[in-house]
Amino acid sequence: MSATSPGITLSGAAALAGGGYSPQTFLQMSKRIAQMTQVIYSLNNRIEVQDLALHAIKEYYESSLKECLHDASNRANKQRVDDDGRLVSHLQILEMQLAAERKRNNFLQQQQATLREQMATAVANRDLAILFRELRGFNNLY
């Protein structure tokens, strides 16, 4: 019974060794199978190494991205705090300027009221002086 007989099949090395192949052909095929097995093993190892490298690169990228996002968030928060501080400082300056302007306005209004009173007094004194002169003029006539 050979490996080529109908209805009968042999498995593995028995089929190769007894299947009508010469020992030299069997040896060459065995060597070729061993070489292919080594190539497959080598390729599988390369794939595993590349997968590990890819995973490491992915982790590094994600870590770098998280670090960049964290840094950007910190910078934005610091900028916001700085801006808030500047705005508060500017607001305080404006409030002080407003208070100074109100004091100045009150002072000017008081001076204006005083000047009006002085003008009213001066006008009244002038009118009185005119009236006294007119009255003396009338008294001198009689």
Can you give keywords for this protein?
142 residues, disordered N terminus, 2 helices, coiled coil, Protein FAM184A-like, mainly alpha, single chain, rod-shaped
Describe this structure in words.
There is one protein chain. By secondary structure, this protein is mainly α. It has one domain (12-141). The chain contains two helices and no strands. The longest helix has 119 residues, at 23-141. It comes from Tropilaelaps mercedesae. This is Protein FAM184A-like. Keywords: Coiled coil. Residues 91-118 form a coiled coil.
Per-chain topology:
Blueprint: H1 12-18, H2 23-141
Structural category is mainly alpha
Annotation, overall tally of beta strands: 0
Give the total of domains.
Answer: 1
- Can you give the mean pLDDT? 88
Instruction: Please report which band the strand proportion falls in: under 5%, 5-15%, 15-25%, 25-35%, 35-45% or over 45%.
Output: under 5%
Instruction: Give the number of helices.
Output: 2
Helical residues, percent: over 70%
Summarize the structure.
The chain is mostly helical.
